Amino acid sequence: MLLDPDGQLSAFLPEPYSYSFRESASKSGLNDWDAGFRLGGGITVDRLSFSTAYNFGLLSFRSDKASSAFQTYQYIQFSVAYAFGFGLKKD
Amino acid sequence: MPVEDSQFGLTAQPAFRGGALIRYQLNDHWSFRSGAYFSQKRHAYAQVDSGQINLFGQEDQIPGIENVDLSTYEYTNGSVSQYYVEMPLIAEFNWSTHHVFMGPYLSYQLFVRSRIEEISEAPALQVINLDAS
Question: Which of A18, A90, B29, B87 keeps 20 to 30 A from B133, CA to CA?
């Protein structure tokens, strides 16, 4: 017995499996500005500096404050810096 | 593109930052730093929606249908990378080889890259052949 011999039922059913991937560069819904506070520490070896900091964002990354949850960027940052020493006086 | 808010964060998202700073040494211990960074900040979200397949009364003609999951699932996984130019103003205290610092930063978004992956599944239709029973 055929349940759907002419495919009319299948036309109203979803695909058994489908996959899609897309990319976007739209800024819609995102806040152009971010501001926050940074607190950290580290060590300096010669001209190299190694630091860890916690960044506490204060502004929502979304621009639509009325309909979206208030969510900010909060992150830990590891950094390496090199000091070129421009402007240092030579003894 | 709507920015979803379900299950925000998905724990850690790696990102990078690079730039140049100028340090102004006030005395042996205190200094100020400021400059400009190119900074990436990321967040991600995941969402699951479910529904039910409507077989338009044909269910009774499928043997064993009571053991089949007639649900449909739609999974959405997204990540948003925001790229900023960032200007910090940092006060730093130095002693010996150690330093601690704190201060505010202000960032302006330059551009955005979003990736959205959508998967739809109907498990029942993966095991039921409607063309023949």
Answer: A18
